[in-house]
Amino acid sequence: MAKKLRVGILGYGRMGRGFVAAMQENPLWDVAAIYDICPPTQQLARRQVPHATIYDSPDAIFADASIDAVGLFTLADARPEQIRRALATHKHVLAEKPLGADVETEWQLVRDIEASDRFVAVNLFNRNAWYHKDIQQFIARGEIGDLAVIRICHMTPGHMPLEGHDPEGPPFHDCGMHYVDVARWYAQSEYETWHAQGLRMWGYKDPWWVQAHGTFANGVVFDITQGFIYGHLAKEQPHNCYVDAIGTKGVARMRHDFTKATIELHGVHETMHKTAPFNDKKLDVMVDVFAKSILAGKNLGFPQARDSVVASEVSWAILNDAVANVPPVRGTPEEMDQILEHRRRMINGFGLPVKRDPLVESPA
Predict the structure, then answer these.
(1) Which residues, including other chains, have CB under 8 Å from residue 140's CB and lie 6 or more apart?
(2) CB burial readout 210-235, b (16+ within 10 A) else e
(3) Assign residue 150 a region: left if phi > 0, alpha if psi is -120 to 50, beta otherwise?
(4) d(CA 30, CA 55)
(5) Which pTM does this prediction carry?
(6) How far, in Å, are 11, 177, 223, 238 from residue 181 at the CA level?
(7) For residue 223, how far is the Cα from the chain centroid?
(8) What's the rounded Cα separation, in Å, for the pair 339 and 335?
(9) C-alpha–C-alpha distance, residues 334 and 60, integer Å
(10) Which DSSP string corresponds to 199-225?
């Protein structure tokens, strides 16, 4: 049997718990220690991971030479110091995105990471998705000709203002950077131009919906639409999530509803339809490829820090362009209060009712 990698977890909030659950199902990981500042969350960790040592400070995790890797699932403003401590104590890192609360700090982290011999993986979960891999293989076979247009939409009744993601930024950065990364991944080129329009829903100060279009250096054009504004109080809450890859000869597209994903591939030689489980954040794929990469001593396909920081930088720039273009206001603060009250009975971020754990959640 392959060696088990001992991991210390920093932050046992929603994403921390998700990663730990995936690691518990994977034979390559041993969750050895968990740090969280919230006493009820510490109690939850003791109950769910009884063999792990639970800490109220991360110091002991960094000091433990037997720990091979750390999982950083705190907020963005805490990650830079934690990444530097991990590198200094010779630990591999699995981190949520963005790596920091500002782009200058993130680029300095990239330089530190790339000068290190440690692996640092960032949770750009779309890069682990079966549907994107199938579509890109279809494109690589020449079935749609040259990729010309990449269109991405991600609109859901997602998290609201005041729900605790301030260091990550408004939705087009916190969530939209995933789709900025997807478009760049498909285009295999760097962003060159963009223009953005935003909308300040419910009178809130930041745009909660942004649409951007522009070009890559190689001539591929894109449009990206992202907003957590899609039917918060609808009787049956909807989603509008898709990718269209339009080529000079054919089209490849994907739709999902957070339960199933469907790809429809219309090529010059093949027409393919496939539906399979969406698999949410694909954390099982991430923890498996990261563990195998550490054991193999080479990156076997995990998303890297540089890709995350490019996506962070461009999404901030697009968001700033939307703000500069004076986003109009629709809705009222009273409507926002009504939605926030409704969402207090929901926890999964997609507008789906789920029973809460009786323990108070940490903000991590």
Answers:
(1) none
(2) bbbbbebeeebbbbbbbbbbbebeee
(3) beta
(4) 16
(5) 0.90
(6) 25, 6, 13, 24
(7) 19
(8) 6
(9) 46
(10) EEETT-SS-SEEEEEEEETTS-EEEEE
Is residue 76 within 8 A of residue 101, CB to CB? The reply is: yes
- Indicate if the pLDDT at residue 128 is higher than 70: yes
Read off the amino acid at residue 94: L
Could you tell me which of 183, 253, 176 has the C-alpha nearest to residue 220?
183
Q: Give yes or no for a contact between 275 and 255, defined as CB atoms under 8 angstroms apart.
A: no
pLDDT digits (tens, 9 = 90+) for 19-42: 999 999 999 999 999 999 999 999
Return left, alpha or beta for 205; rule: phi > 0 is left, psi -120 to 50 is alpha, else beta.
Answer: alpha
195 touches 323 (CB < 8 A): no
Sign for the pseudo-dihedral over CA of 16, 17, 19, 24: positive
Amino acid at 279: N
Which amino acid is present at 270?
E
Q: Which residues are 272's β-sheet partners?
A: 265
- Amino acid occupying residue 56: D
Q: Which of 200, 358, 286, 332 is nearest to 20 (CA)?
A: 286
Read off the tokens for 249.
């000869």
List b or e across 33-71, with b for residues whose CB sees 16 or more CB atoms inside 10 angstroms. Answer: bbbbbbeebbebbeebbeebbbbeebeebbebeebbbbb
Angle value at C-alpha 84, between 78 and 89, nearest 5 degrees: 125
Give residue 235's identity as a one-letter amino acid code.
K
Q: What is the pLDDT of residues 242-254, one digit of tens each?
A: 999 999 999 999 9
Question: In Å, how far are 45, 89, 93, 340 from 16, measured between CA atoms?
Answer: 10, 21, 13, 24
Helices within 146-187 (DSSP H only): 171-174, 176-187
